[in-house]
Structures are given as structure tokens and as C-alpha cells.
Specification:
Layout: H1 11-27, H2 34-39, H3 44-56, E1 60-62, E2 70-72
Antiparallel strand pairs: 1-2
Helix pairs in contact: 1-3
Amino acid sequence: MKYAPRRLLTDTQERILRCIRQHIADHGQAPTMQIGAAVGMRSRALVHYQLGELEAKRVIAREPGRWRGIRLV
């Protein structure tokens, strides 16, 4: 099965991705609430939206219903 190439990430998405990578490296698990604080977003809805965009671009995968269910692809 062929996949579409990854689309370019926005600056915000790059910052979120770096935050996720760093948190996994430091703590061995994906961040949750820490993402918004790390990238200066106060709205959980905006963080959720950006995670959906990263998932659509196949940069991360999320496991539904699982706390800290973000994985890097």
C-alpha cells in the first residue's frame, strides 16, 4: 500500500513535535497536558486540533481512549 508523502509542518506543529520527542526521551512516555504549556497554548482544544493535524500528516499516531497514547511514526 502506498502512502501520501508527509506534508510540510507549520512552525507550531514543529514545536509540538519537538515537545513530544523531548518528553518521550526524558520521561519514557508521551506528554499530555504538558504540550500546551511547552508551546505556549492555553487552549486544550487548540492542542487537540494540532494533534489531529499531525496525525493526518502521519507524523504521530494516537491510540483512542488511551491516556498518553501518542506515538511517533
